Structure formats: C-alpha cells, structure tokens
Amino acid sequence: MIKLMRKRILLFVFLVSSFGKLYAQEFQATVVVLSPTIQATNKQVFTTLERAVGDFVNSYKWSNLEYAQEERIKVSFIFNITAYNPPSSFAGNLQVQYSRPVYKSDYSSPVLNFMDSDIGFAYIENQPLDYQPNAHISNLTSILAFYCNVILGMDRASMQRGGGEAFFSQLQNIVSNAQSDGLATGWRSFDGTKSRYWLMDNLTSSAFEPILDAYYTYHRLGMDQMHDATKQQKAKETMRAAILSFQPVFQKRPNALLITSFFDAKSDEIVSVFSDGPPIIMSELVSALKLLDAGRSNKYEPLQR
After folding, report:
1. CB 226 within 8 A of CB 235
2. Is residue 304 part of a domain?
3. Which residues are CB-neighbours of 249 under 8 A, at least 6 positions away?
4. Are 158 and 219 in contact (CB under 8 A)?
5. Rounded to whole angstroms, what are the CA distances from 195 to 38, 186, 270, 300?
6. Any domain includes 183
7. 106 DSSP 8-state letter
C-alpha cells in the first residue's frame, strides 16, 4: 500500500512538473508579404500567403530539440513580391533576419540578415503547405525549410562548438532535391554568388570551420559574458580574436558568402561593442575589419584609438 502511494505521488509530481513547462515548436516567426508594385485588383492572396507561411514555419517540427514556449527562436521572413501571375505564380526577394538572445540581457545579437534576391514559387490561395525532408514538393516550402535549418544550425553553432552540423548537413539534402526542379533558381552554383547554393556550400565546407568556430567564440565566450562588468574586457578581447580568425579564410576565399553575411548582420553591433566599455588595443582589429568588410570601412574609423 505504501509503495503504491509513493508511485502515485511520484506520478503526480511528474505530471505537475511537465505541465509547468510546456514545450513547443522551434520558431516564433514573423512573416510579412509586401507587394507595393503589384497592380492586382484583389490582394487578399498576399495576406493569405503571409498567414500560411507563418503557420507552416511555426507549426512544423524541424528537429528533435525541445523548446519551451519562451525559448522559441524569433525570426523574420520579409517577402517582397515583385511579380505575380494569377492564380499561382510569385517572384521577388526574401529577407531573412534572426537574432540570438544574449545571456542575462534584454539584448538580442543579430546573427543573420540575409537577402535572397531571387525567389520564385507557386502558391494557390488556401492550399496547405507541405514539406518532406527527402523530397522537393514545392519551391516555397523548400526555401522555408532551407532557411529554418540555416537558423537552427547557426543558433546551435553559437551555443556549442560544432553544434550546427546536423542542421547544416540537411541543407545539402534540400539543395540536391531542389535542383531537380529545372525552373527553380538559387539552388545551383551558377545562380549568382549570393545564392542558397553558396550559403549551403560555405556552411558545410571544412574550409569554413574556423568561421563557424568563431561564431561560438564571439557569442558564447564573448557576448554572453558582457553582463558581468568584471569580465567585459576579456570578453571584448575574445570577440576581437574571433574576428581576427577570419583572416586566413579570407585570404583564400575573399568573397566568401559566409564572411560577408557575418558582417551584414554584425557591423553595427561590432561598432557599438568596441566603442564603449573597458578599452582594448584596437589597431589590429580595425585594420582587419577594413579588410574583411571593405564596403563599410568608414564605419570602423571611429574605433581607431
């Protein structure tokens, strides 16, 4: 009798603790569909598309990881539709933005701010969106699956060395399957230098392991330590070392997409972090920033001190 009561008590405690922390899907996505140049008489289809994409990203189970409701990854998908041929043909561009929460802070550190300038897909209003990991069912869901895996991989890579490998390997599968669609662009090496293909290539190539390692160093050993004033100087030195570690890769692949996308997301943050707080020696870092991110070299001038 006593053993039975103990089992019931343990079961009750388990159930209470389980209900105390409800688990959810990985993403809390914000989706915006813009169509400023489209002269369609009925734009309801764009609103329906916006809702369908949000529901799809937020409800699909992308991994075996467990996320509490408050831990869901916040991401933005901003579609700019520049061509629409009713009833189902869409074309335009897509901006994907993802920021990672910083430990013991209200601040979120931008990790990805990527512009996919060449998207095209078919969508019929109110049709359900479907995706299967080993098949290319539609270009729209393949594109969404691609970026969801990119974000999950980058999120894990920033938390643990090599943490994103399982998700990055999925990109190869998505790209390979999508290449079977002869009309879909962005999946092949000749579809421009800033395509999904080259993002996949960089994230899965051993040549770029130092960059992914730097994501971990910069975020986990740098940004996540900034909440402690006694650790800020060391954290800034660690972040400086992470950025400097890009240089050997840059010498071999100066136009690498993974490098340019890092600074597309991080340039403002870098200026903000290194402009304030405990001073560190900046000359080598400023020179590196001007080399690695030459298009924004003027932005880094104030850091020279």
Report:
1. yes
2. no
3. 207, 208, 210, 211, 256, 259
4. yes
5. 25, 5, 25, 27
6. no
7. S
Chain length of the chain: 305
- Quick count: other Cβ atoms within 10 Å of Cβ 304? 11
Instruction: Check pLDDT > 50 for residue 185.
Output: yes
> CB atoms < 10 A from the CB of 180, how many?
10
Whether the model clears a pTM of 0.70, i.e. scores above it, the answer is yes
pLDDT in tens, 105-162: 999 999 999 999 999 999 999 999 999 999 999 999 999 999 999 999 999 999 999 9
Domain count for the chain: 1
Strand partners for 116: 94
The rounded distance, in Å, linking the Cα atoms of 270 and 289 is: 10
Of residues 203, 231, 209, 213, the one with CA closest to residue 103: 231
Is residue 98 assigned to a domain? yes
Assess if residue 173 is contained within a domain: no
Domain that holds residue 145: 23-152
For residue 63, the surrounding DSSP H or E stretch is: none
